[in-house]
Design a protein that fits this description.
This protein has two helices and no strands. It has 74 residues and is an all-alpha fold.
């Protein structure tokens, strides 16, 4: 049986639930910071073009948006 012991801060840093919570907080922080950076970029340089958005999706997800002809072999 897994024994849970609390450290001096009241939680066990090796606890998988604590790890998931920390990861969720970190993801939210990264998304918030990224959103702020993208907003700043667009305020300085104008909105992203469709081509820039398509390229970004391809780099991030490895393929074009579903239903899009971009990135398909033809």
């Amino acid at each position: 049986m897994h024994e849970r012991r609390l450290c001096h801060r009241g939680w066990n840093p090796a606890d998988p639930v604590a790890d998931r919570n920390q990861e969720a907080v970190a993801r939210r922080s990264r998304r918030r910071l990224l959103g702020a950076e993208l907003t700043r970029h667009q305020e300085e340089r104008g909105e992203f073009t469709d081509e820039e958005l398509t390229e970004a999706r391809t780099r991030i997800f490895g393929e074009a948006e579903p239903g899009s002809s971009a990135g398909t072999a033809g």
